Amino acid sequence: MRQAVIVSYARTGLAKAGRGGFNNTPSMTMLGHAIQHAVQRSGAAPAEIEDVIAGCVAASGNVARAAGLLAGLPVTTSGMTLNRACSSGLNAIAVAAQHIVMGGADIMVGCGVDSITFQGGGGGGRDESLLERHPARTIFLIPEAGDEVRIEAKVELNDYQLHGMSREVLSEVIELRLQGSAARHPGSVVLPLLVSDLPVFCRWRGEPAWGSGELDEIVAVTDRLVIDSSEWKRVPAAYGQLAALFGRVAVSDIAFSRTLPWRRRLAELWPEIGTIDRLRVEGPRADAELVAGWLRARLKREITLTRRDAATVTAMWVDGVPVGSPGDPLGPSELLSAELDQFGRDRVYEAAVGAVTHVR
Question: Would you say 10 and 42 are in contact if contact means Cβ atoms under 8 Å apart?
Answer without folding.
Answer: no
